[in-house]
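Hey there, shall we discuss this one?
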Amino acid sequence: MNLRNVSGILIGIIALLSLYACDKDFIDLESDVIGDSHFDFTRYDGQLTVVAYNQGTGIVQSNNLPNISTDISVNSLGYYNNPAFGATTAHFVSQVELAAISPEFSTNIVMDSVYMEIPYFSTRTNIVDGDSTYELDSITTSQNGRMRLSIFESGYFIPDLDPSPESNLEERIRLYSDQKQTFESYKKGSLEDGTSVFNGPRLNNSTNTQENDQFFFNPAEVILTKLDADGDEIVTRKTPRLRVSLNKNFFKKKVIDAPESVLENNTAFKNHLRGLFFQVEQQTGNCLGNLNFTTGTITLYYTEDQISTVNGAATTTRVQKELVLNLTGNRANLFEQTYTPTYAAALNPANINTSVGDERLYVKGGEGSVAVIDLFGRTNANGGNSAELEALRNEAEANNWLINEANLTFYIDQDAMGESVEPQRIFLYDLTNQRVIGDYSAQDPGPSGFPKFNKPTFGGFLEKINGNGLRYKFRITRHISNLLKNRESTNVRLGLVVTESINDTRFARLKPGQPNNQVFSQVPVASVLNPFGTILFGSSPLVDASKRLKLEIYYTKPKE
């Protein structure tokens, strides 16, 4: 989620917590040096080789990615043209489930309306005379940014298990970011009378163009009014949200008039109504949002006869009823990408320098790219056991070093970034084994109620100067300390990605058979969910030393 709306006060609190956590981490690591005057604190000035280079992810798994108890589920919808990386169009598909199975209907049903609602991430900033003002989070738009939003019935069935011979129905189904054409080929629209037809008119067929042809993420409070049984007006206020009307006759035929067997369980229902396909086209400017679609609902409003018997006399009255569908089940993002020539060139294997590293590191989420990092002259050929690492271990052991702190600092190429949106956090991980490193695993929860700021000591936050991005910094003290103290510890390759959620440590598969990526087969899930990117100065000797990627190690040793 984009965190640009977090206040300066919160940032200050985070900074103080980070300093405290840093001290705490220092004490936990080397508690015997505190208060002892027989040690010198030293920065290591010997050779510390760092090689970092670009690697494109290619096509990524994009279904059912976020669903963990420590954070929230997000998917992208819309269009964003990043001047540094290129254009991304994010379509979306989701299954639909009954909120309550086996609904009971009476007779003479008349549909009033059908509305879909998906709340945005928002913060209330003011309230005057009962009217609230909100600021949207995780929404990136330019002035008058608009997109054409078309919602269709999905005719493509998504099974829960992978039916391929390799899986033999033992693994969850995987969908990939390049499968937009698959869903588009099976999309269904609806005639005005509710008849479902392939490539028919979209379901969000309102004459209000803000619900389709001129859609934008409106930050206004949603205010609804209706009359109660006595004719009095009832006002309902809701946070900003995607709220569009859908073809009521389609849902009458598809749900209300469905056979009872289809409504007995959601397995049958998801085969009957196979989901919704959200198709996006750019209209003007940028219009991109990250939404928690699993909180979305489709509510069918209708009236029906209610027959009651009083003193042997049957009375028929009209009653208002509602039926709710949830946007849950299998879901996936479907990306269309157009890379800038500069970004495409940076990911071209012919231009990647694995010997000394690249001048610039292009770290982008979605169907994007990863920075691959080797420390101490590591190569796959030597398995990480380089002469440089061995010499450093010998020196640390001979001089009784205690590692106080180790940092990796990445400086931002602000000229290359230009006006591009900067990711608020990036993530460093063990690329060799697709897991977190020791510094991430340390107890470091951060402030309560702000999961995006968890692991503050570990770092990876965007640091700014004069309003512009300056750098990202990671503390990898435990990782380096373990490497030097334990000769059995493997010098693993590290990976660097943008992150949508620091708490989500799962990995998504890359589509098999991509020839340009022989380095890794998975990427962090939270990277797939973040559409933004950053350009960092790399390890090449051509980079000015003050901006070059660097590893710093601070240690103490007994005084002689």
